[in-house]
């Protein structure tokens, strides 16, 4: 009897860089593909975990407010002058762009785009961690922990497409450029870092903790800190001044900013009559709840901070600059969460980026614990 050789089933094939042995099995191929490309898995995890937020029957009040203002922009009832001095000006135009593409008040589309935005943030944090450590496993832990823990608390605050979450993508890019500049000794990267730090602040003013951390880290470069500081500060000013430059009239823009700051200060100080003891107890209790809920992220991050201070004297000045930047970034963000005595849970969201970067440094301890 004549025997036939089925080359399709016996031969090895390559599909998207993944070798398949014998007959093609989609499930096995997908598993092999994700193992070989873990960043794809992390991106998909960040996105898929937020899919339930696409179908919620309610929205955060800040999301609704942002949507109303975006509709006003599209209907030409307000313009850029109205937002000058606003503490999250780019967030309004983020919503406006999505509404312009998908239709008025398309909050579901906002959530879908925000899910992709969070996935990109995880990838940017991977790049930042790799630039800092030059260790792929540490960088993967950083990105993976952020992808999972970014939805690890109350849905109305951590799932919502708010300015705090949107600010983390440019913040992660700023951190990546900063660590790249320290590693490669190329000052132009400090300029890139300053520009994206400004973009992050335009998404949410309270992410200024990033800028404080990066600036103080530069002071640890010693005598050669002047040029990096000049690059960083000049680029930051250029980025932060973009709304004014787009408006055109400098005098009117300054007037609008001062008027907005006056209204914002009234909003911030609205709860200052509350007893400081009440605010402190509220802050400590909510911080404890978040740290407990995000313990896979917070515990290794705290360990990394302790280890940094223990080994501080043995570190090179560039390692000190990077470590100081991360620690100050985290601490300032934690303090700013209490601003205005509100202590809303989503005020802690900007701390997720430095927490993830610090937690990634403790990847060996995490892996030892999991074993």
What labels would you give this structure?
about 375 residues, mainly alpha, 21 helices, about 0% strand
Can you walk me through this structure?
Mean pLDDT is 86; it is low at 1-11. The chain has a two-stranded antiparallel ribbon. The chain has 371 residues and is mostly helical. The protein has 21 helices and two strands. A hairpin with a 2-residue loop joins strand 1 (13-15) and strand 2 (18-20).
Question: What secondary-structure arrangement, pairings included, does this model have?
Answer:
Layout: H1 7-10, E1 13-15, E2 18-20, H2 26-36, H3 38-48, H4 61-74, H5 80-83, H6 89-102, H7 107-133, H8 136-149, H9 155-158, H10 163-166, H11 168-184, H12 188-203, H13 208-218, H14 226-240, H15 242-247, H16 250-268, H17 276-293, H18 295-310, H19 317-336, H20 352-361, H21 363-370
Antiparallel strand pairs: 1-2
Helix pairs in contact: 2-3, 3-7, 3-8, 4-6, 6-7, 7-8, 7-11, 7-20, 8-20, 11-12, 11-19, 12-14, 13-19, 17-18, 18-20, 19-20
Element order, helices and strands? Answer: HEEHHHHHHHHHHHHHHHHHHHH
What value does the average pLDDT take? 86
Quick one: biggest sheet? 2 strands, antiparallel
* Biggest β-sheet: strands ordered side by side in the sheet: 1-2
Distance between the termini: 55 Å
Question: How do you describe this structure in short?
Answer:
This protein has 371 residues and is mostly helical. Helices cover 71% and strands 2% of the residues. The radius of gyration is 23 Å and the shape is globular.
């Amino acid at each position: 009897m004549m025997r036939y050789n089925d080359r399709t089933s016996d031969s090895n094939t390559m599909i998207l860089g993944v070798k398949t042995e014998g007959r093609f099995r989609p499930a096995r191929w997908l598993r092999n593909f994700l193992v070989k490309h873990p960043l794809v898995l992390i991106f998909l995890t960040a996105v898929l975990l937020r899919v339930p937020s696409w179908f919620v029957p309610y929205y955060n009040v800040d999301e609704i407010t942002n949507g109303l203002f975006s509709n006003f922009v599209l209907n030409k009832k307000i313009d850029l002058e109205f937002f000058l001095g606003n503490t999250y000006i780019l967030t309004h135009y983020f919503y406006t762009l999505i509404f312009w593409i998908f239709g008025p008040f398309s909050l579901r589309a906002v959530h879908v785009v925000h899910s992709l935005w969070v996935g990109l943030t995880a990838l940017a944090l991977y790049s930042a961690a790799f630039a800092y450590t030059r260790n792929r496993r540490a960088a993967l832990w950083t990105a993976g922990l952020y992808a999972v823990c970014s939805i690890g608390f109350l849905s109305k605050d951590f799932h919502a497409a708010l300015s705090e979450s949107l600010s983390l993508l440019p913040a992660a890019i700023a951190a990546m450029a900063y660590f790249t500049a320290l590693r490669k000794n190329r000052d132009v990267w400090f300029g890139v870092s300053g520009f994206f730090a400004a973009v992050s602040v335009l998404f949410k003013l309270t992410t200024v903790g990033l800028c404080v951390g990066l600036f103080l880290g530069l002071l640890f470069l010693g005598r050669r800190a002047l040029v990096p500081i000049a690059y960083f500060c000049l680029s930051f000013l250029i980025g932060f001044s973009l709304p004014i430059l787009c408006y055109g009239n400098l005098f009117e823009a300054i007037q609008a900013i001062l008027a907005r700051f006056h209204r914002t200060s009234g909003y911030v100080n609205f709860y200052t009559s509350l007893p400081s003891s009440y605010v402190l107890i509220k802050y400590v209790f909510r911080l404890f709840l978040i740290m407990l809920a995000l313990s896979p992220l917070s515990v290794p991050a705290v360990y990394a901070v302790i280890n940094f201070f223990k080994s501080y004297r043995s570190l090179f000045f560039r390692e000190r600059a990077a470590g100081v930047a991360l620690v100050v970034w985290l601490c300032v963000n934690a303090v700013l969460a209490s601003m205005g005595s509100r202590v809303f849970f989503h005020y802690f969201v900007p701390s997720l980026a430095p927490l993830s970067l610090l937690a990634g440094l403790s990847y060996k301890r995490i892996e030892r614990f999991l074993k």
